[in-house]
Amino acid sequence: MTDRDTLLATARRVIAVERAGLDALSATLGDSFAAAAELILRTRGRVVVSGMGKSGHVGRKIAATLASTGTPAQFVHPAEASHGDLGMVTEADVALVLSNSGETPELSDIIAHTRRFSIPLIGVASRPESTLLRQADVAIVLPQADEACGTGIVPTTSTTMTLALGDALAVALMEHRHFTPEHFRTFHPGGKLGARLLKVADLMHAGDAIPLVSEATPMGEALVTMSQKGFGVIGVTAANGRLTGIVTDGDLRRHLVGLLDRTAGEVMTPGPRTIGPDQVAEKAVAIMRDRKITSLFVVAPGGTGRAEGILNIHDCLRAGVV
Do residues 77 and 209 both lie within one domain? Predict the structure, then answer.
């Protein structure tokens, strides 16, 4: 039977040690970090990230974060680089090489390759006098910090600092480039992130699919349109094409007596709630749920009030927008 208090105490100690390492990293960041960011901003190619062991695992994540936030990047394994993958590292690129000691033997070939072809090299290590940092064009020194394992041999605090440094670099570059949620969605079309960033225009029904009639349309014709389009509602437009109202099942029930003797303009509910095509679909779902409706008309921006589409809540749910 394990002692839960002991396990929790260990966990909190590890987190405290790693937090101290992050505080030290924040306090020691300086010109080298800014120089590394500027070097990446100037590059015409990619950021080639490399590292061995735990640094390699962290490097893969850093490369993925850079790539997804507007900075083209890829990870190159140093051992594979020595067997042909050095061809992935070109003179248009900048190399970001990670090693806590700065003396990892497997990195020697990729470091030599950057020196031979004048490829800019950003080194990240904890020893300023190490081979990696002495060879680097920009040397980022990780502060001295205790590993959280207590023995000093298991990469814990050092890898956490390196990962945080990579995140800081990616976000700094992202903000400098004015990277927007729309840009982010370009690299995240799938999963929850992609669904949350879908625009109304991505899901709406447009063109002939929009159930529209004019204010003067007899309700007999309007009912046919409502049935054919299949949304359970119809939009009603003025002579200038502006959406002025909507006819729902509730409107039909309220005007049941003499319904077929009326026009759409007489039966409609005026001033329907609408949304713009550039709004996120998540907002449209919130409106439909709040109003307890299943469809929402999409109107053109600029104040014309013209219907550009119709959005159904079931389309949003199928796309994962909840």
Answer: no
Q: What is the CATH number of the domain that holds 24?
A: 3.40.50.10490
Please answer whether residues 269 and 246 qualify as being in contact, where contact means their C-beta atoms are separated by less than 8 angstroms. Answer: yes
**d(C-alpha 234, C-alpha 103), whole Å:** 71
Residues 231 and 139 in one domain: no
pLDDT at 103: 94
Domain final residue pick, 148, 179, 210: 179
Quick check: is 216 in a domain?
Answer: yes
Query: What pTM, to 2 d.p., does this model score?
Result: 0.66
pLDDT at 151: 84
Going across the sheet that includes 243-247, the strands are 212-214, 234-237, 243-247, 269-270
For residues 316 and 322, give the distance between their C-alpha atoms in angstroms, rounded to a whole number: 7
Cα dihedral value 229, 235, 241, 243, nearest 10 = -150
pLDDT beneath 50, residues of the chain: none
Letter for the amino acid at 155?
P
How far does Cα 261 stand from its chain's mean position? 53
**Same domain assignment for residues 96 and 153:** yes
The pLDDT, as a whole number, for residue 13 is 95
How far is 111 from 86, CA to CA, in rounded Å? 10
What pLDDT does residue 152 have? 82
Are residues 41 and 156 located together in one domain of the fold?
yes
